Amino acid sequence: MTTVATVILAAGQGKRMKSKRAKVLHSVAGRPMILYAVETARRLPSDKIIVVAAHQAEAVKDVLKDRPIRIIHQGRPLGTGHAVLQTESALAGFNGPVLILNGDVPLITVETLQSMLKIHGNQGADLTLLTATLPNPEGYGRVIRDPDGGIRAIIEEADARPDQRAIREINTGFYLVNRPFLFEALKELNSDNAQKEYYLTDIVKAAVRRGRKLFAVPAPDPDEVMGINSRVDLARTEKMIARRIAERHMREGVTLLDPETTWIDADVVIGRDTVLYPNVRLEGTTRIGEDCVIHSHTRLTDCRLGTGVTVKDSCVLSESAIEDAAVVGPFAHLRPGTVLHRGAKIGNFVEAKKAELGEGAKANHLTYLGDAVIGKGVNIGAGTITCNYDGVRKHATIIEDDVFVGSDTQFIAPVRIGRGAVIGAGSTITKDVPPDALALSRVKQEVKKDWAKKRKKKEKL
Ligand code: UD1
Ligand code: CA
Q: In this prediction, what percent of the chain has a pLDDT beyond 70?
């Protein structure tokens, strides 16, 4: 297949987003929007990939830093034509077709670009456009054709007359242009239009004027070419990508009980025979092993789950590692740095942060474990709290293997409990406990016989 050079336009602010953040940095299924165009372009035989940036260019650069991408600054973004013109010296020496695409159209597939490339070559075209016919063409440039079907121009909506606005064939913003013609045409652009911008779309008129070979390829699926200009478009695209991602996982052997309400970010990995209940959200770089069950209203962000893990309803887990056969929830909150080793259990209303639970350890009810290392087989009773913060610094609680912690215990960190020790319920533990000892720190119970009866009599109750 022909080698292309790719130019991705990402310099605009995206005014219609009404955002502090540049449009192409907005997240779609957990990934900055620009990465979709970049990753799709990388799957084509490419001589080079150039991203044109201006608005928040440093942040765009940062998102792309591990990829073989050249970034060109547009300076003041004066329009899509002006943006492409900035790539002239970067493309000097390249004589094949230049693929130009907008950074705000994330759903495009590599197959569509490949077929466009094939047609461009077979037709010997100078300029090939990808167009689409939409029920509602609002917001897009319209394709103006001759009565005999030949393409004459692209008219931006802002410049279109009412009869032109009625045209439903639109410019998708994907072009293949032979390099020599591209820069000849770009140099002739002017900004004599409603937006006072140098429109890339005006290269179509230049091609017609010069009698260059112009070709339009219809997009196979109009959804693919949907551009994101507003938050409404963003939500619609997010939904379509979510559906694609869900279907990919189902095809790979994951059960989604309700794909419509399951949100899985683009980079999440899920093993076979894992079951996701309705309203589950899997974010970031989360990786889930095989045979796991994730119940409803649970959100996992940047987590690692082994095989056969169960996360019950309504849990929030982030940056945590859960090994095989561990069980979490319902209503648990695992904050960054939590590690549950094989078969460990975290029950309802338990919060953990930078806490490690050894194999088979359990904290089943109403507990806070922070900055704690808990050994194998430890039982943490209901209402246990690690008092890890003294108002200035954080301190560690270390509980060795097979310790039994009675309910309603507070560990005043730093403190270490030796292997096999027992902590009596209701204790406030301020000092280290040696292995196999019993530690108990509660006030001795007093019992006053018949006290209540006597009071009743006295008060005439
Ligand atoms: C553009 C097309 C329109 C097409 C639509 C498809 C033009 C003039 N119009 O309109 O015909 O139907 O895309 O989605 O090209 N950008 C720059 N530098 C600039 C201006 C924009 O890099 O100076 C970038 C933006 O960041 C964006 C892309 O170019 O990624 C498109 O810009 P946008 O303003 O969204 O153009 P549309 O109005 O959508
Ligand atoms: Ca756009």
A: 100
Q: Is the pTM of this model over 0.85?
A: yes
Which of the ligands is closest to the CA of residue 174? Answer: 1
Q: Exposed/middle/buried for 222, CB within 10 Å: 0-12, 13-18, 19+?
A: middle
Asked if 335 and 351 count as a contact pair (C-beta separation under 8 A), the reply is yes
Q: b/e for 411-449, b at 16 or more Cβ within 10 A?
A: bbbebbbbebbbbbebbebeeebeeeeebeeeeeeeeee
- The model's confidence at residue 461, banded by pLDDT at 50, 70 and 90, is confident
Ordered structural domains, the chain, with CATH: 4-225 (3.90.550.10), 231-439 (2.160.10.10)
- Note the pLDDT of residue 324: 98
Q: Which ligand 1 atom is at minimum distance from the Cα of 156?
A: 11
Is-contact 393 387, C-beta < 8 A? no
Burial class (CB in 10 A: 0-12, 13-18, 19+), 340: buried
> With a 6 A CB cut-off, is 56 part of the ligand 1 pocket?
no
- Is 365 annotated in the active site? yes
Q: Residue for token digits 């001759």?
A: 146
Q: Are 394 and 368 contacting, i.e. CB atoms less than 8 angstroms apart?
A: no
Angle (nearest 5°) at CA 114 between 47 and 284: 80
Give residue 1's pLDDT. Answer: 76
CA 200 – ligand 1 centroid, Å:
8
Question: Between 110-123 and 34-42, two packed helices, what is the crossing angle to 10 degrees?
Answer: 50
Cβ 160 under 6 angstroms from ligand 1? no
For 153-171, what is the mean pLDDT?
A: 98
- CB neighbour burial string for 313-329, b if at least 16 within 10 angstroms, e if fewer: bbbbbbbbbbbbbbbbb
Of 299, 292, 354, 356, the residue nearest 324 (C-alpha)? 292
**Amino acid 317: pLDDT:** 98
324: its two tokens: 């095989």
